[in-house]
Design goal:
- The complex is a heterodimer of chains A (132) and B (667).
- Chain A has 132 residues and is an all-alpha fold.
- Chain A contains 5 helices and no strands.
- The longest helix of chain A has 23 residues, at 102-124.
- The termini of chain A are far apart.
- Chain B is α+β, with helices and mostly antiparallel strands and 667 residues long.
- Among the domains of chain B are: 418-514 and 618-628, no CATH class; 515-615.
- Helix content of chain B is 66%, strand content 11%.
- Chain B has 20 helices and 10 strands.
- In chain B, the strands form 2 sheets. In chain B, strands 2, 3, 4, 5, 6 and 7 form a 6-stranded antiparallel beta sheet that branches. Chain B has a 4-stranded antiparallel beta sheet with strand order 1-10-9-8.
- The termini of chain B are far apart.
- The chains are: A mainly alpha (132), B alpha+beta (667).
- Chains A and B meet through helix 1 and helix 5 of A and helix 12, helix 13, strand 1, strand 7 and strand 9 of B.
């Protein structure tokens, strides 16, 4: 039974394909903003999909909310923080730069800088002998 | 009966693998010739046993034997026979058996093609691979046996293969990818065997290089196939989603790319030996980690296999043993490795060092981004996500220096070179790349700074390849004479780097200049979409082999000229009742037009998506070039030389064969 359920969940997640809605926008900028935002919000109920890709009812509702807010002239920042307040950091595919995420954002760069300094210090000072 | 035979053969392979994984080390240690000879035979016979077992499972699928649970869950009597065969690896159990088959296939290949190598080294290499095989066959037999029966209540028909997987791309994608994943086990085995013997010289790098390159070729093609499949099958025009499962295949590819470069430096100049060995261990560890992530269900992903904690625990323990044991061997033995360090700051060695540092950091970044939500949940209990915005930004940051260095790195001298004369050779090429990039961006759309930077870098790498070829021509009488002088392995490098340039251009131009429009359209209507007109002229319902299809027919006009006719479909599968969209794509070298049918709306209209994607083909075309570069590199003269010498010495005793290989090595 358990296997059957997980199988069904898997199927359900696959099913969410090609969501096509035909919202009307007044300007091209609004349409771009809408597309951008729905591609950065994660569907809170699905496996790993943006609300743009998901067919779940909740995603449909969230897309409608985003559409309304875009038409009301709200900024990207305010729409994203509206979603964050309700669904937590989980909905944000772009993780916010805050202390809990400092390691995520800065560790790769730090590692690279350390390597750079070591290489420059070690190889840079080295004398190359003419023949081995 | 047949499934039981398959099960029995797999058990036989398991027992053989245990013998191979233990007796080989004992034989090599005590120089017991009988045991050493046994290892090559055992390797081949394990492969034959697993192959026979795999054929048994395939026969069960072809015969619709629904008494086998795995067949009943993943096949159906209506399924065409070619999909019944590909359904063998359509889910966890069968794909694991395919994994084992490919692993033992690599093992047999090492046994067969390593006749000119020292016998005790080969025995140890096969021993390491045998131990890996023990782990994976045990995983198959004890947690995921595809031969299990559902008795006594045999289902009348099967549940069907997931319709998404009923597609050519999915027939070839997993085997290709597994060839790559598992192929890295060869260089891993060479590294461990070399460490155990304690003599890692440049020959070690020479022997591992072609195996690594072959694995990398398969992996490149496998990833590209997956991306292409996602593009045409999933129906939203995307080609890479930074999904954990994609990252799981991307990490070993990145590490493998670094490994190819450091192996080159180790073989040619005897530098970075210790790092290369560590990288070989890490690359295969990342392959195993990928398996863990995909099959344990710890990460939520769109295309992970069904979750089962027992499987997750098994593979995590296995991963721990492999990584722990190999790092222990490395820690104990790496002090015996002596690298040369005779090179200056401006040298090809340093360029390769930066290549490796950057690729390693990128790999680390992808790993961090993939695991960060898990780590955070474990420590704080909070759920978080890391997605495309993070990965795209971080990946670009580290790709920019890689691409800037690439043309310089492929032309700078080994050991030492003065910087100024080198840079003066390049500035004209850099400026022309920049100007051409601006021209291309202006033609395609707005002047976006990131698009200009990306295009410039792609052209810069392209220019680097052209400059290399011209540089060789300058040393010779004519361009063709110069091109003939370039060895196959250098051609391999040029073509692979050309592939990188092509992929970069494809990624940048598609990302910045694609159009995506959802429209409402009635049959007989024509709608304006940006610079195009879309006409909906026909609609049909038809019966497919195991589905019903509803297809719209559309004409796309630019001005009044017909560009193309497209027929996107919706399919309803009979067995699973699933509805799938089949996009229709007019593919071109410079642009794709891509259409998807949505749902019928209230007033007889349909919701339809239209995409215009410039240069999207270049993404996969570049991967083909990269793979071709790999093929050129392994077809280099020195490898063929070895084979010819081996043939000459095929009949005489071992001593002569050894001398032959020595000769090939010294050239």
């Amino acid at each position: 039974m358990k296997q059957l359920i997980s199988f069904l969940i898997m199927i359900a997640s696959f099913q969410a394909l090609a969501v096509i809605e035909t919202y009307e926008f007044e300007t091209e900028a609004q349409e771009q903003l809408y597309t951008e935002i729905i591609h950065e919000l994660r569907c809170p109920k699905c496996q790993n999909q943006t609300i743009a890709e998901s067919n779940a009812g909740l995603s449909e509702d969230l897309r409608f909310i985003v559409y309304q807010k875009v038409m009301d002239g709200e900024t990207k920042r305010s729409i994203l923080s509206y979603m964050q307040e309700r669904y937590g950091d989980f909905v944000l595919y772009d993780p916010p730069v805050k202390p809990a995420n400092y390691f995520l954002w800065f560790a790769p760069l730090a590692v690279f800088l350390i390597i750079l300094i070591i290489v420059l210090a070690k190889v840079g000072r080295r004398k190359v002998t003419p023949e081995e | 009966m047949i499934p039981e035979v398959g099960n029995f053969l797999l058990i036989m392979a398991f027992i053989n693998a245990i013998f191979l994984g233990t007796l080989s080390f004992y034989g090599a240690q005590t120089s017991h010739q009988g045991l050493i000879r046994f290892t090559t035979r055992a390797a081949v016979s394990i492969f034959v046993l697993v192959l026979a077992s795999f054929i048994c499972l395939t026969i069960s699928f072809i015969n619709n034997d629904f008494s086998v649970a795995y067949v009943a869950n993943h096949s159906n009597s209506q399924l065409p026979v070619y999909y019944r065969i590909s359904a063998v690896w359509g889910a966890h159990e069968g794909s694991l058996l395919l994994w084992v088959l490919i692993l033992t296939g690599w093992m047999a290949a090492v046994a067969i093609f390593s006749k000119s190598l020292p016998k005790d080294l080969v025995a140890r290499v096969l021993g390491v691979m045998g131990l890996v095989a023990v782990g994976f066959i045990a995983f198959t037999l004890f947690t995921s046996n595809p031969f299990e029966r559902v008795l006594p209540f045999i289902p009348i028909d099967g549940a069907d293969l997931n319709p998404l997987l009923q597609d050519f791309g999915l027939i070839v994608h997993p085997p290709m990818l597994y060839m790559g994943y598992v192929g890295f086990s060869v260089v891993f085995a060479f590294a461990i065997a070399g460490l155990l013997q304690g003599n890692l010289d440049h020959k070690w790098a020479r022997w591992s290089r072609p195996w690594t390159t072959v694995a990398w070729i398969f992996m490149s093609l496998g990833i590209a196939l997956g991306s292409w499949w996602a593009y045409y099958e999933l129906g939203w025009g995307g080609w890479w989603f930074w999904d954990p499962v994609e990252n799981a295949s991307f990490m070993p590819w990145l590490a493998g790319t670094a490994l190819i470069h450091s192996l080159a430096a180790t073989e040619k100049r005897g530098v970075f030996k210790s790092w290369t060995v560590l990288l070989a261990i890490l690359t295969f560890s990342l392959s195993l980690l990928g398996t863990f992530l995909v099959r344990s269900g710890v990460l939520t992903s769109v295309h992970s296999f069904a979750n089962d904690p027992v499987r997750g625990r098994f593979i995590l323990i296995f991963l721990g043993i492999v990584v722990g044991a190999s790092l222990l061997v490395y820690a104990l033995q790496s002090s015996k490795i002596r690298s040369k360090t005779n090179f200056g700051l401006y040298s090809r060695e340093t360029a390769l060092l930066f290549n490796n540092a950057l690729l390693a950091v990128v790999t680390f970044m992808v790993l961090l981004g993939t695991l960060h939500p898990l780590i955070q949940e474990a420590f704080t209990g909070g759920k978080s996500s890391v997605g495309p915005p993070y990965f795209n930004l971080m990946f670009s940051i580290f790709m920019i220096p890689i691409l800037i260095l690439m043309p310089i790195g492929q032309q700078i001298n080994w050991k030492q070179e003065s910087l100024k004369p080198l840079l003066t050779k390049f500035w004209l090429w850099a400026i022309s790349s920049f100007l051409l990039a601006i021209a291309i961006v202006v033609v395609l759309g707005d002047l976006q700074p990131m698009a200009i930077i990306g295009t410039t870098l792609g052209l810069w790498v392209l220019a680097g390849c052209a400059k290399y070829i011209l540089g060789q021509a300058g040393k010779n009488a004519s361009l063709t004479a110069g091109m003939k002088k370039i060895s196959r392995s250098y051609w391999g490098m040029i073509v692979a780097h050309l592939g990188v340039a092509v992929t970069v251009l494809g990624v940048v131009l598609t990302s910045y200049f694609s159009l995506e429009k959802n429209i409402k359209i009635r049959q007989g209507e024509t709608v304006q979409v940006e610079d195009f007109k879309v006409e909906f002229y026909d609609f049909k319902n038809t019966q497919g082999p195991n589905y019903i299809s509803s297809a719209g027919s559309f004409r796309i006009y630019s001005d009044s000229e017909v560009l193309t006719e497209l027929h996107p479909e919706k399919r309803k599968y009979n067995a699973s009742r699933m509805v799938m969209t089949e996009a229709d794509i007019d593919a071109g070298l410079f642009r794709d037009i891509y259409m998807v049918m949505g749902e019928p709306l209230e007033d007889g209209a349909w919701a339809v998506s239209v995409y215009y994607k410039p240069f999207v083909r270049w993404i996969w075309l570049g991967a083909i070039f990269m793979a071709l570069g790999g093929v050129l590199a392994i077809s280099d003269k020195r490898y063929r030389e070895k084979r010819r010498l081996k043939k000459q010495n095929a009949a005489p005793s071992d001593g002569l064969a050894k001398a032959g290989s020595e000769e090939a090595d010294n050239e």
